[in-house]
């Protein structure tokens, strides 16, 4: 601003001295250039803290809550292209379908706190669509998350897998006031200096992420509250040396964007399916490994927990979790398991977990040894 003041003082002095008009015009031009430069610096200082492209025609603006503005363009102009101001002024801009007052190849997106996102389209004089940019707003990470809510484990993403084939599922819970949709999915194996390239199919339901270390495909559930992914290069018989990293970008209808990430080994999130249990006789039950579990069972052994109940419950949806049981028994086997129950036992419950790692138990499976008509 000191430079502008000097130019202004110089301009006043020259006018008083009666200098030629062409020199005064030259000084006016200098003043104009300096003013434009200062205005540019002022605008730049108010721009978002960062901006980047999520996918083609989708621009993400990272903001910290302060007022600002970000220029977007309609047409890419080569450096040697010659265009007139009239041609630029013929370009009409619309935000979410409503015509804006701004004209020309450049449009300034005005940002106020988390507002400013939207669908920006530019049109020719005849109304023909020339280009579009979807602007999403991502607030500073220090701000409170607002789109998803934490689960019982105090995490935003819950991931699990039924086996070691490389498939897994992650789910989340929307905030009741800000239900949105998945905007982008990224999955990769953690490694130093390695980044995956991700792309989305036109249907926007399938994402592919590839790198030198991994090749993932992910699809969004019909409910919109989860994804199913597969690491095509994963080998269940090899040691898992690198964690999986999943990042889910979710957005609201108000164009607010947030990202949520989770890192894990498959062994940390594995949860076997229910075991298959059957009655051999009044005192003997047997069960087998879940059909989805990896083979051979000697290489992927399971540990089983058995609970016995001497009474039944007519109103219980799941007697395994609602009835009191005696001390549970633990059994490890790499084949079909048989278990001799105690006398007067009416319900037997069985669940399984990976015997070689501290992972989650499967859901309970129960069998009634005595029909409900014989309840006490």
UniProtKB/TrEMBL annotation:
The gene is IL12B. The keyword Glycoprotein applies. Residues 56-122 form the Ig-like domain. Its main location: secreted. It is found in: Secreted. It holds the Pfam family IL12p40_C. One of its GO terms (cellular component) is extracellular space. Belongs to the IL-12B family. The lineage of its organism: Eukaryota, Metazoa, Chordata, Craniata, Vertebrata. The keyword Membrane does not apply. Heterodimer with IL12A; disulfide-linked. The heterodimer is known as interleukin IL-12. Gene3D superfamilies: Immunoglobulins. One of its GO terms (molecular function) is cytokine receptor activity. This is Interleukin-12 subunit beta. InterPro entries: FN3_sf (IPR036116), Ig-like_dom (IPR007110), Ig-like_fold (IPR013783), IL-12 (IPR050676), IL-12_beta (IPR015528), IL-12_beta_cen-dom (IPR019482). Keywords: Cytokine, Disulfide bond, Glycoprotein, Immunoglobulin domain, Secreted, Signal.
């Amino acid at each position: 601003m000191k430079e502008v003041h000097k130019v202004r003082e110089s301009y006043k002095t020259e006018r008083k001295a009666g200098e030629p008009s062409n020199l005064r015009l030259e000084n006016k031009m200098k003043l104009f250039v300096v003013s434009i430069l200062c205005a540019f610096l002022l605008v730049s200082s108010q721009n978002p803290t960062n901006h980047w492209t999520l996918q083609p025609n989708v621009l993400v603006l990272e903001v910290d809550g302060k007022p600002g503005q970000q220029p977007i363009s309609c047409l890419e102009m080569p450096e040697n292209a010659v265009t007139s101001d009239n041609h630029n002024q013929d370009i009409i801009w619309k935000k979410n379908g409503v015509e804006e007052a701004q004209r020309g190849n450049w449009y300034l997106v005005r940002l106020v706190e988390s507002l400013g996102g939207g669908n920006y389209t530019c049109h020719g004089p005849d109304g023909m669509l020339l280009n579009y940019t979807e602007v999403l707003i991502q607030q500073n990470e220090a701000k409170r998350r607002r789109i998803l809510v934490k689960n019982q484990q105090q995490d935003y993403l819950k991931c699990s897998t039924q086996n070691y084939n490389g498939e897994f599922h992650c789910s989340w819970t929307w905030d009741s006031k800000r239900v949105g949709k998945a905007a982008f999915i990224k999955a990769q194996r953690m490694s130093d200096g390695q980044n995956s390239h991700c792309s989305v199919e036109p249907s926007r339901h399938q994402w592919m992420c590839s790198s030198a270390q991994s090749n993932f495909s992910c699809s969004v559930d019909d409910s919109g509250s989860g994804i199913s992914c597969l690491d095509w290069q994963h080998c269940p018989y090899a040691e898992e040396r690198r964690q999986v990293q999943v990042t889910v970008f979710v957005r609201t209808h108000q164009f607010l964007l947030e990202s949520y990430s989770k890192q894990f080994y498959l062994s940390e999130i594995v949860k076997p399916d229910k075991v298959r249990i059957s009655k051999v006789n009044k005192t003997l039950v047997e069960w087998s490994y879940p059909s989805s579990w990896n083979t051979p069972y000697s290489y992927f052994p399971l540990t089983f927990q058995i609970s016995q109940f001497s009474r039944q419950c007519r109103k219980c949806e799941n007697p395994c979790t609602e009835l009191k049981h005696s001390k549970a028994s633990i059994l490890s086997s790499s084949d079909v398991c048989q278990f001799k129950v105690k006398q007067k036992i009416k319900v037997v419950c069985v669940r399984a977990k990976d015997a070689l790692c501290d992972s989650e138990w499967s859901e309970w499976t129960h069998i009634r040894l005595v029909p409900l008509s014989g309840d006490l």
